[in-house]
Fold this protein.
Amino acid sequence: MAMPENNTAFRAGQVALVTGGAGGIGAAVVERLVARGGHVVVADIDTERGEAVAARTGALFVRTDVGSLTDNEAVVEAAVSRFGRLDVVHLNAGTTGRTAIGDGFAPDSYRALVSVNLDSVVFGIQAALPHLRRTHGSIVVTASAAALRPSIEVLYSATKSAVIGLVRSLAPSLHRDGVSLNALCPGLVDTPLIAGRRTAIAEAGIAVASTEQVADAFETVLGDSRTGQAWLVMADRPVAPFPFAELPVPGAEKLIGHTPSG
Ligand SMILES: NC(=O)c1ccc[n+]([C@@H]2O[C@H](COP(=O)([O-])OP(=O)(O)OC[C@H]3O[C@@H](n4cnc5c(N)ncnc54)[C@H](O)[C@@H]3O)[C@@H](O)[C@H]2O)c1
């Protein structure tokens, strides 16, 4: 699905919000967008690291728990009141979580995982949408390649699969308002998220992408006219939309984009 022509790559003077921007992939995207001349708001629960990224780049840091709708609304309002508009939102905060199905399953840890990885995307889009409709802006969500194949991170994969389903299903209706919505699906990336597995990853010979490669992919997606795509970002291949199999259902296109209130 192609976007209207006014939806183009990030330009100097535009305003971006990056969740999970205190480190890893988010910090690399913050640095990239600042380097492009953007006004950037860093939203993260880690105040110390978030303030450090802000001090280094000149971005604005707002302490945010992405699992809270109120916090998402507050950081969007902070961005708009400071810079007057909102053009790009990168919903990137995430965690691998601390529990697994089986012995020792911890329901509270499971809820926290769903909150950080899935509620964050629902709430982030909900909070930003009124402003993005005005600018014909873009939303990029960080999902994971762990949702595109079986993964040992079972619950993590489940939340990221939900994010991809949300992106693919919601994009057509946002498209009518000129807002694009895509998912980045990185394989392994060199960030604190994989800190405990580095030796095993190296021994397995799996290629690990740099955060700069993911920032490159982020820019590729922003500059692309397609929406509703899950973009595979691997260290050893060009970024490209994941080729989901078609499931033709006669008449389904008439329902896509329909909302209960609309
Ligand atoms: N590193 C990888 O191999 C990899 C691969 C695929 C996808 N991802 C995804 O990339 C995204 C960024 O992860 P990363 O690898 O840069 O790891 P990271 O741990 O460096 O970054 C995650 C950021 O999210 C923040 N965060 C966590 N909970 C939060 C909350 N409740 N509210 C606000 N911020 C919160 C953390 O403070 C941190 O700054 C995540 O969504 C992750 O699932 C990472």
Q: What stands out?
A: The pocket of nicotinamide-adenine-dinucleotide is lined by residues 19-20, 22-26, 44-46, 64-67, 92-95, 116, 142, 144, 186, 188-189, 191-194 (CB under 6 Å). The chain has a mean pLDDT of 94. Helices lie at 24-35, 47-57, 69-83, 107-135, 154-175, 198-204, 211-223, 252-255. DSSP finds eight helices and eight strands in the chain.
